[in-house]
Amino acid sequence: MPEGIAYIHWGNSWQLRSYQDFHHHIDALIYIHDLPKVDLQRYAAVIMPDAMEQEAPRSHAAQLNAYLQSGGFLIVFLQGHADWIDLPGLTWQPGSCRDWLWWTKGERLEIRLANPAHPITDDLPIEVMSWHWGGSYRAPTGARPILELEDGSGCLFLDMPDLPGGGRLLLSTLDPHSHNGQRFMPATTAFLQRFYPWLNRELGIDRAPRNRFTYLQCSHHATEWHPDWIAHSLSEAGFEPQFRPLYDLGPKMLAETDILYLPFSHDEVFLESRRDDLLDFLEYGGSLVLCAEPCRTWLPFLSPFRAVPSRPFENIKVRIRDDRFGIFADLGDGFDGWQGIFGQYARGWTDPPPGAIWLTDVGPAHDPKPADWIWRFPSRSHRGGFVFMHNGDNMIRYPDHGPAKERLVASIATAIRKLMEGRLVF
After folding, report:
1. Does residue 250 sit in the same domain as residue 130?
2. Which of 83, 185, 75 is nearest to 132 (CA)?
3. What pLDDT, on a 0 to 100 scale, did the predictor assign at position 402?
4. 32-85: per-residue pLDDT in tens?
5. Which residue of 90, 159, 172, 283 has the fewest C-beta atoms within 10 A of its own C-beta?
6. Is residue 197 located within the same domain as residue 218?
7. Residue 103: is its pLDDT beyond 90?
8. What is the domain count for the chain?
9. How far apart are CA 24 and CA 373, in angstroms?
10. Based on the domain organization, do 131 and 52 belong to the same domain?
11. Confidence (pTM)
12. Which neighbouring-strand residues pair with 375?
């Protein structure tokens, strides 16, 4: 039986970035020029995202049509006129919205959901399918419209579930991957965040959530080795916490976790000896939460720690700079004080790698430095995980008061899980 989902790309950055966002829901990334070397029959579904060069699929039309005609599920987003699809009665017609700036003028688009409604619209309401389109199709006999022009003259999204040979074609003139990949038009991101989970459910694919969290035990101090309160807050957030000694770190441990947490005091020489294992972990989707003030740059993207001036005292008051992922949203002012002591949370910074997001400030107001940053590992597989870098003390201590007491680590892990699963995009 075929299983899994393949995603065919043309090397376009928007396609690749969208795959990177939603790779949790996909099993294979296939470069279109490598198609002759690939057996598509292995896959329960094959996605052809928009932003494809129109001629690129043409030389592979026989292979793609053979997949469809032998019972495959082919999903094709905007290709212009995808006339390489061998399906009698499928007719494309040019056209788009009346006004490209409709959304700035309080106007509505001239589209509607088909009646009767397709079941996919339980997951994809019209609000996440409303931006523009690239032409429309006349639905052939047996097709089930999903989204159509208001005057009934064409379909923008249609399902052909019972093709000869048992195949299925889902065809759309919408272009969500390109705009999500450009980080332009939030509706397109919302579309894909709903579409990929729907597709997995439609295929009966149940993917394990990224819930495995490992705390590396580095110091035998009573409050550091096995802090019970972190396990409680992580469990409440839906994680499966485990505590493992630092010197057990290796491929086997890393294969059994999704997020690896490193407390503040640790053996940099040993960690450097595990550099390749950690980079492989990041390459294929694992994530790191690091509490560190590096002296030895034991991973290639780390830089040496530098302290901010300790006077005036306000320099070591940490300020939130960018909370787009909601990590600090419910912690309140003073989250960086442990038993009222400012300065333990972070006393300095490391330089973030290119592309990192600077989350919190430390240091003088006129010359702030990044106390916390988050970064996506730029993997060749486009499945890279995340690094949350905290340039300071063990975050299990923070906050120690208020309604979100001891929730900081769980909040960070929750944000990373959402990023890993495509519920947030970086």
Report:
1. no
2. 185
3. 82
4. 999 999 999 999 999 999 999 989 999 999 999 999 999 999 999 988 778 999
5. 283
6. no
7. no
8. 2
9. 23
10. yes
11. 0.95
12. 387
pLDDT by residue (tens digit) across 178-201?
A: 999 999 999 999 999 999 999 999
Q: Indicate if 251 and 313 belong to the same structural domain.
A: yes
Q: State the CATH number of the domain containing residue 266.
A: 3.40.50.880
Query: Please, which pLDDT band fits residue 100 given cuts at 50, 70 and 90?
Result: confident
Q: Are residues 191 and 227 in the same domain?
A: no
Indicate the pairing of strand 111-113 with strand 144-149.
antiparallel
How many Å separate Cα 268 from the centre of its chain?
30
Q: Closest Cα partner for 279 from 355, 379, 210?
A: 379
> What's the pLDDT at 294?
98
Mean pLDDT, the chain, rounded, equals 95
